[in-house]
Amino acid sequence: MTNKIMDYFVRFLILALFLASFFAPAPIVWSLTFLVTFVVGLWALLFPQGILLLLKTAHPEIDETNPRLRSVPTFIGGAFMLIAATFGLVFLMQR
Predict the structure, then answer these.
(1) How far apart are CA 95 and CA 86, in angstroms?
(2) Tens-of-pLDDT digits for all 95 residues of the chain?
(3) Contacts of 12 (CB under 8 A, 6+ apart)
(4) Of the candidates 33, 23, 25, 24, which has an alpha carbon nearest to the alpha carbon of residue 80?
């Protein structure tokens, strides 16, 4: 149940970023971009099977229950969080 809630929350944030990119001022879009990048990274860290299930739609041969494959989305999620945090800190220090 928690995985579904987080999945819908991430989808909502991505849709909000897409719509904001057309209508919102640039600072709001950049802030939302950092937030979405961080949340997607957190989602990949907490629920790597969600990323693997998304990959399985394109590549049916992927086994999402294989514990060795979970390290890949976990690493990518950590990298997303690190990138978002770094750019967020740089952005805040420029103000």
Answers:
(1) 15
(2) 677 888 888 889 999 999 999 999 988 888 889 889 999 999 889 888 878 888 888 888 888 888 888 888 899 999 999 999 998 888 888 87
(3) none
(4) 33
Tell which residue, 66, 46, 65, 57, has the closest CA to residue 3.
46
Rounded Cα distance, 62 and 26, in Å:
39
Question: Which tokens belong to 92?
Answer: 């805040």
Q: How far apart are CA 64 and CA 50, in angstroms?
A: 9
62, 51 in Cβ contact below 8 A?
no
DSSP category for residue 27:
H
**CA-CA distance, 39 to 80, in Å (whole number)?**
9
